[in-house]
Amino acid sequence: MVNINKKLIGVYHLEIINDFLNSINGLTPYFSLVAAYTATVQIPGVSGAGITSELRELTATADVEILALGKAVCLQEGVPSNPSGAPGPSIITHAAFKLIPEMTYLPIDVGLKIMPAVKSIVKLEGASQAKAVSSGQALENEAQAQKLFYSGWKLGVKLGSECANSGHYLIIAETIPGGTTTALGLLLALGINAEELVSSSMPGNAHHLKLEAVKQGFQALGKEKGAFAKTPLAGVAALGDTMQPAVAGMAMGASIHCPVMLGGGTQMAAVVALAAALVKNGEVDRTRIKPENIALVTTRWVSEDATADLSGLGAAIETKFGPFPVCYMSANLDFSQSKYPGMRQYELGFVKEGVGAGAAALAAMLTKNLDPDEFLPYIERSYEQLCL
Amino acid sequence: MVNINKKLIGVYHLEIINDFLNSINGLTPYFSLVAAYTATVQIPGVSGAGITSELRELTATADVEILALGKAVCLQEGVPSNPSGAPGPSIITHAAFKLIPEMTYLPIDVGLKIMPAVKSIVKLEGASQAKAVSSGQALENEAQAQKLFYSGWKLGVKLGSECANSGHYLIIAETIPGGTTTALGLLLALGINAEELVSSSMPGNAHHLKLEAVKQGFQALGKEKGAFAKTPLAGVAALGDTMQPAVAGMAMGASIHCPVMLGGGTQMAAVVALAAALVKNGEVDRTRIKPENIALVTTRWVSEDATADLSGLGAAIETKFGPFPVCYMSANLDFSQSKYPGMRQYELGFVKEGVGAGAAALAAMLTKNLDPDEFLPYIERSYEQLCL
């Protein structure tokens, strides 16, 4: 029997999570990666997703390529990395794909700046690069957010139905550097007290800089926190990014048919907040979807991050937009025993999550019944192949 | 079969917690309550444990009486309550005792201001009222903290051995109003970045006031955060309270023989930090104790508190003083459907924890196989008996 306990460390809404884990038992993961660019990533100090400003423009493109091609052809070498030297989270997701060759990969473009050399990529209607959250006009308009939501929904229904008919569950992951700042933007737009709760790819977090960027956005709009609680997609258009409406739509649409893992930390919590707000406001009929089929899966580095608070964030979302469970589990990854100093940087608070690393790791550990220490060498091998 | 999942909501270190839950399966809880006074509670604004300054002096005494006598003879009526009108957490613990008549009750005095009318109370060597944390000299001296630790240890070994021989596990709970501020004091003394992580009996928390009180203490000492990382019991004497060394000793001593639930939120996290620091510094031999026999049990209100972060706090403790697991689980209590407005105040962030409410609730739900909604009427009955 698979020992799930060693593979997970933090769990919130234990009952729902246990039912969820039972529901995916024996199923094969289907991995979708929603990729986009937001100019928010260029605001100094908010992101560690890429070593330089130029490279941050390539991060999402490179992530898409790595999982399809086994290397980032858009980069000269390696994977998108943190200024600390820590390799990006794609090494974890890559290792999961190596372990589960039967895992389907579907990259989805919702606004990349640079096209990846991957033919199979799907472009969602409404996709475009987002402007910085500080502009207060991140997307073109609310109609674009709606377009992304409904094209996401349609794709989600289709994928969910396919998964249900073929013994799969769906993972929806993201790569959108700067995304914890747009997560903060959306959460504040919706009126969630998330100021100190979102996570970060840097050890000290950068709450102040992120908040400053979002405040500039509110100022440009002449609006206050919570102004979009009743118009969530307008909030996305003002202070969010293109990934958020697309994934909210996909997750809700797919939940009708199959279990859905949202692969990510506080960025995915913002997506769940958007979903809950859309239900609360009657824009989505609660009886059409199955919220209990949606579970956020992240890494231990996010769930134990002392500069963020995923359960606090979940509770704040539930209080404002519930009943809608915000449940999560975290894969028990630990790089302290890695032979590579770059990987050990994770234990100092660098990187933490991205490219669905937590969900992919859990999927791999469950599928192959590996404990975290047994999975570690596979990640090291991916690191060697991709970076050394 | 008991459905544990419904009874818990948040879990950290899932594997250890699952082993722990298996280890107490079929055992009877033995409930000890460590009670004390600290003048810290009188610092304006830091505590909601009592409606007035005079009543806060009686809170711990009243809690001890309620569990022994079914009423607080030191009060004119009712239970110690929050200024909001929310009844104190003793109504939850009282309900657990009603449900489990075979649960032994052992009150332990480590420095009460007013003696309870309870004959069976045990006074630990070294017990005395503590001064405010802002004095920088909360206890008389380090020797007092050591005395409390070793008398706690001796009692823990004795109780643990008795529990093991009679089919019990041990719950160690606390009632020490003002205790989240002394928790912050001890954690900062040990060098844990706990500034924004501790919980509170008030909705907005009072991080600033608590931190101010602790900073005054450091100033009076002419010392800085982390000054006591290598002399943890001196840190307790400077900036902690009498409950902390007593419970750290009890828990470690008892862990040799039986499973131990630490009933409390961030106050008990500070106790675990103290235990881990004592092990790290070689004052306690790690091979003598069984840290995996110690689990923190609290309420949903603490684990989802957006103004605190129990997993972040645990991770910070592990990083500094590990390997020493700081694992927790939270009882899935929810008063939103209570017929009493005072109880519904819990959902707004008042009270949250105390008198081992989370551990007692979990013990009751496990022993009687009640789900949280089935346990709620028993708490309401206790509220009626004690307060109406």
UniProtKB/TrEMBL annotation, chains A, B:
Family annotation (SUPFAM superfamilies): Nicotinate mononucleotide:5,6-dimethylbenzimidazole phosphoribosyltransferase (CobT)
GO molecular function: nicotinate-nucleotide-dimethylbenzimidazole phosphoribosyltransferase activity
Record-given protein name: TIGR00303 family protein
